[in-house]
Structures are given as structure tokens and as C-alpha cells.
Design brief:
Blueprint lengths: L1 H8 L3 H5 L10 H24 L4 H24 L10 H8 L1 H12 L2 H10 L1
Helix pairs in contact: 1-3, 4-5, 4-6
Keywords: Membrane, Transmembrane, Transmembrane helix
Protein name: Membrane protein
Organism: Zhouia amylolytica AD3
Length: 123
């Protein structure tokens, strides 16, 4: 998360611009704001994962929600055939879509939030 967040703010900024959903805005200033703000959020989430270990379940849930919220950007990249991050074919962009649920589950599993959620459901 820290590296991805830093990438948003610097060396991968153009790549992340390709993932801002076109339905959100095509104004370059707004798109850049989305990239920068999501980068700051990723850095905060990365730091939270490292330093807020007493709250790891909450951090995991927030991280999973973040991954859900950014998923439309991946869908937009696929539906509008936008090349970024080496995803330069429809097939590669489609395959990428299947990894977002993996990230969501990883965030929940690695922070024990998934176990917590399952236990809450069981009662």
C-alpha cells in the first residue's frame, strides 16, 4: 500500500490516471485530484496496517472497502480499452478484473477481519 500510494504521487501518476473512471470526470484537474487523494489514502492505509496493529480488523475492513471503491476504475480501464500498467490488451485488462476480489479477500484475511466477520455472522 505504501509503495502504491507513493506511486500515485510520483513515478506512476500517469498510469493511475488511466484508472480514473471516465464517467467520474474527464477534467484533467479532477482526475489528478482523484489520483493524488487515493494515493494519500493508500499511504494512510499502509501506515495503519503497520502501526495500528491493535485495530487491524478495522483497518482490514477499511482496506477492503477501499478496494471495492476503486474497482470501477479497473472496470473503466477495461471497458474503454485504456492501456496502463502493461495492460495493453482486452484479455490482460479482463484478467486484471478477477484480481480485485482477491485483493479484497486478502485484506480481510491478512488482518483477521474475515474471521471476525464470519464469527459475527455465525452469531
Amino acid at each position: 500500500m505504501l509503495l502504491a500510494g507513493i506511486g500515485h504521487l510520483s513515478f506512476q501518476r500517469e498510469e493511475f490516471l488511466a484508472q480514473v473512471p471516465l464517467w467520474l470526470s474527464n477534467d484533467p484537474a479532477i482526475m489528478d485530484f482523484v489520483v493524488l487523494s487515493s494515493g494519500i489514502i493508500e499511504i494512510c492505509l499502509g501506515l495503519a496496517m503497520v502501526f495500528l496493529v491493535k485495530h487491524k480488523i478495522k483497518v482490514g475492513i477499511v482496506l477492503a472497502i477501499f478496494y471495492v471503491l476503486i474497482f470501477p476504475g479497473n472496470i473503466s480501464q477495461y471497458t474503454h480499452e485504456i492501456n496502463a500498467f502493461g495492460l495493453d490488451t482486452d484479455r490482460k485488462r479482463l484478467i486484471r478484473l478477477f484480481f480485485q476480489p482477491v485483493l479484497i479477500l486478502w485484506a480481510l484475511w491478512s488482518t483477521e477481519a474475515l474471521k471476525h466477520i464470519i464469527n459475527k455472522i455465525k452469531g
